Request: fold
Amino acid sequence: MNYYRDREIEHIENEVKMVREYNKPIMSIFEFDKPDNEGIFDQNTYYNQGPEAAHTVFKKIDKHFNYDGLTPGWHQLR
Reply:
């Protein structure tokens, strides 16, 4: 899960390193739930940015890691 927008690569770096070593898949999940300022804050969700912004970020993540086992996931995208 990407815990903060704009720090996605940093937040999954260790996980990608581990799954690459064992040739396992990994999903980078983008949150789309509405921020409630209790459990989900604006920095944790793409609710206001939309799916195109998340797709753009995933392309950067994908290019950075260049790992075929990495896929995007969309949480609460309606």
User: Anything to note?
Assistant: Residues 8-22 form the longest helix (15 residues). Strands lie at 26-31, 70-75.
